[in-house]
Structures are given as C-alpha cells and as structure tokens.
C-alpha cells in the first residue's frame, strides 16, 4: 500500500473516531418519543450504558430519589399541551441518602454527587410532599455536592415538615466546582430556601445565584444562607420569607440588586468579605425587626433602600465608614448600635430617631 493511501485511510479512521466521540447519547423517560431509547424511570435512564449525555423526561409524575454521579443534562420536555415533569417522593417517603461535609444527615430528592463534569437540571418540579422525614435530618430538594453545573427553570417546593426543609443546597469541595442557579422558583421550605457552603477556610465553591424567586410563609424560614468556604454572586432575586431574607455568615462575593420582603431581618451581614449594595428591603411582619444587620467592619453596605422596619440598619458597634448612601424610610429608628464618633451619611424619610448609640 502506498504511503498516500495509508495516510488517506488513517485520516478516514480518525474522522470516524471523532464522529463517534462527538455523538450525543440521548434517552427518554416515559413513552412520548417512541423513536428514542426509552425507560420507565429516570433512575434507569441515568444508569444505562452507554452513559447518557441528555435525559429527556416526558410530562408526568416520577416517584423517585435521584442520584447523579456523571455529567448529564436532565430536562423536562413539552409534549402537546403538557409541560410539567414532577419528581415526587416515593410512596413510603424519602430516605436519608447523603451526608454534608459537616456530617449533617440529608434526605435529598435529587443528589448530584461528585460529578466530574457539568450537570444541568432544567424544566423540572421537585416536590417534597409526603417526604415523611423525621426531625434531625435535612429534607433537601436538590443537593449539589462538589459538582459543577447549572440549575435553570426548576420549581422546588414543599421541603417541609420537620423544620429542616431546604430547597436547594450547594456544597463545594476539593473539585472547586462552579454552579449557576437561575430562573428557579423555591417554595414552602421550612428552614431555608437556598444554602451555599463548604467546610473550608478558603473558597471551594463559586456560585452565581441570580433571578430566582424564593417564598415561604413559615415563620422560621430564611431565604438564602451564604455560609463559609464559598464565593457567591447573589443578584436580582425576589425573596419573601417569614424570618431572614439573606444571611451572610462567611465567604466572599456580593449581594446586590435583590428585592427582599422579610419578617425579622432583611439582610444579616456577619462577614467582611461580602458587599451588600443596591438591594430593596421591606418588612412584612409586625414584630421587632431590622432591615440590615451589618456586623462587618469593612464590607460595603451602600445604595440600599430599607422600609418599614423597627430599625433600618444595626451597626452592631462595628461598621461605620463603609455603611453609607442608603435610603431608610418609615422606620422607628434609622441607625442603631452606632459606634461612638461615627456619623454614617444616609438619607432618611419619616424616621423617628435617625441615629442612636449604645456602644
């Protein structure tokens, strides 16, 4: 065989291998697409060989707890006039199937566990009704654990019943994953709508949390909890909860341009690494309440609009120079716990007492 023919054959074989490697394996759950390889359950499709790149789920209710360990796109599809795909608790309820890196037991409805590539979840409803989880275990709608990916256009609801209901939990780790949560509706959780954390002194999770709606009427429910070991950009979310809208206990990043309607506290900032800017914060309960608690001594708290709380901003005897240019209206007190000698410059309307110390 001539060298030219050998080279031509080799190039043809390479092209065939490249074509095979680029092929997308798509499975269907349900029987709405008869020309596709189909399965009765989502679990069966995820476990099939070859591993799927895409799993499309027909409209219907699937009583399953899902564990995803490989890169995949899991998406609900529209068929005719039906467009709702519900991942519901099995008939006996949820079982404990995961543990956080802090040792917390978790009953996760969808657990994305240490996937070595991006996992995308879209157009699904994750419903925790009938979970039957006892106190002491967290009920979690979607648990992203040390895995990269995207959550887009999900409804995550009814993670409640034992005061440990969490809509969405993002946890980083040694893989330093990047996760985006957007356009997602989190409803009726009784602990927190969304948590982001890593058990690390340095950031091992990068999270973008944008354009989501979080709502719960439970008096103890928080909206978003940003804990340690993460870098989070939290922007453009609408939050309506009974307790604290956004709690920032650690990590770094920014909380900006959110609308928060909350009972006890609009935004609680207890770390120096996160700025709080241009948010609109309103009180929705007749109780002692704070628009923003700013324990940080260095983080910027600027450009926020705060209305109808008992106290607009509590400086906790720490923050001062970086808390300015906020608008506070319809509050009994504008600033409280102001350090001696500090005079933050803000704008006040219909405020009983503009500033008080006590430090």
Please estimate the helix content.
Answer: under 10%
CATH fold assignment: Pectate Lyase C-like
What's the rounded overall pLDDT mean?
92
How many discrete domains? 1
So, CATH architecture? 3 Solenoid
Strand content: over 45%
Class by SSE composition: mainly beta
Globular, elongated, flat, extended or rod-shaped: what is the shape?
elongated
Q: Tell me about the biggest sheet?
A: 23 strands, mixed
Concise structural overview:
It is built from 2 helices and 36 strands.
Describe this protein's structure.
- The strands form two sheets. The protein has a 23-stranded mixed sheet that branches.
- It has helices at 3-21, 42-47, and strands at residues 26-29, 38-39, 54-57, 60-63, 66-68, 72-76, 85-88, 98-99, 105-113, 119-122, 125-127, 138-145, 149-152, 155-157, 165-171, 178-182, 185-187, 192-197, 206-210, 213-215, 222-226, 231-235, 238-240, 244-248, 252-256, 259-262, 265-269, 274-277, 280-283, 290-294, 301-302, 305-307, 311-314, 323-324, 327-336, 347-355.
- The chain is built from two helices and 36 strands.
- The chain has one domain (56-355): Pectate Lyase C-like (3 Solenoid).
- It has 359 residues and is mainly beta.
- Strand 8 (98-99) and strand 9 form a beta hairpin.
Main attributes of the structure:
359 residues; mainly beta; Pectate Lyase C-like; 23-stranded mixed beta sheet; 13-stranded parallel beta sheet; 2 helices; 45% strand; elongated; disordered N terminus
Draw up the topology in text.
Elements: H1 3-21, E1 26-29, E2 38-39, H2 42-47, E3 54-57, E4 60-63, E5 66-68, E6 72-76, E7 85-88, E8 98-99, E9 105-113, E10 119-122, E11 125-127, E12 138-145, E13 149-152, E14 155-157, E15 165-171, E16 178-182, E17 185-187, E18 192-197, E19 206-210, E20 213-215, E21 222-226, E22 231-235, E23 238-240, E24 244-248, E25 252-256, E26 259-262, E27 265-269, E28 274-277, E29 280-283, E30 290-294, E31 301-302, E32 305-307, E33 311-314, E34 323-324, E35 327-336, E36 347-355
Parallel strand pairs: 1-2, 1-3, 3-6, 4-7, 5-9, 6-10, 7-11, 9-12, 10-13, 11-14, 12-15, 13-16, 14-17, 15-18, 16-19, 17-20, 18-21, 19-22, 20-23, 21-24, 22-25, 23-26, 24-27, 25-28, 26-29, 27-30, 28-31, 29-32, 30-33, 31-34, 32-35, 33-35, 35-36
Antiparallel strand pairs: 8-9
């Amino acid at each position: 065989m001539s060298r030219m023919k050998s080279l031509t054959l080799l190039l043809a074989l390479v092209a065939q291998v490249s074509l095979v490697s680029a092929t997308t394996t798509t499975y269907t759950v349900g029987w709405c697409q008869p020309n596709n390889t189909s399965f009765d359950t989502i679990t069966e499709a995820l476990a099939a060989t070859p591993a799927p790149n895409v799993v499309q789920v027909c409209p219907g209710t699937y009583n399953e707890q899902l564990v995803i360990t490989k890169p995949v796109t899991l998406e609900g599809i529209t068929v005719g006039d039906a467009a709702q795909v519900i991942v519901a608790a099995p008939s006996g309820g949820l079982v404990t199937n995961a543990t956080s890196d802090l040792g917390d037991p978790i009953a996760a409805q969808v657990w994305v566990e240490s996937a070595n590539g991006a996992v995308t979840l879209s157009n699904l409803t994750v419903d925790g009704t009938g979970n039957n989880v006892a106190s002491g275990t967290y009920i979690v709608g979607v648990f992203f654990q040390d895995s990269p990916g995207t959550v887009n256009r999900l409804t995550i609801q009814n993670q409640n019943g034992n005061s440990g209901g969490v809509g969405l939990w993002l946890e980083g780790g040694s893989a330093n994953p990047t996760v985006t949560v957007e356009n997602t509706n989190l409803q009726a959780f009784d602990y927190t709508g969304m948590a982001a954390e890593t058990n690390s002194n340095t950031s091992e999770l990068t999270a973008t949390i944008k354009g989501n709606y979080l709502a719960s009427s439970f008096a103890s429910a928080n909206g978003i909890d940003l804990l340690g070991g993460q870098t989070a950009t939290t922007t453009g979310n609408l939050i309506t909860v009974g307790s604290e809208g956004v709690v920032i206990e650690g990590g770094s990043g920014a909380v900006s341009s959110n609308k928060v309607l909350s009972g006890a506290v609009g935004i609680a900032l207890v770390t120096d690494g996160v700025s709080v800017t241009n948010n609109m914060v309103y009180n929705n309960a007749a109780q002692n309440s704070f628009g923003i608690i700013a324990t940080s001594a260095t983080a910027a708290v600027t450009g926020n609009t705060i209305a109808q709380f008992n106290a607009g901003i509590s400086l906790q005897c720490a923050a001062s120079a970086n808390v300015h240019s906020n608008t506070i209206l319809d509050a009994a007190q504008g600033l409280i716990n102001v350090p001696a000698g500090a005079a933050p410059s803000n704008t006040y309307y219909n405020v009983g007492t503009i500033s008080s110390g006590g430090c």
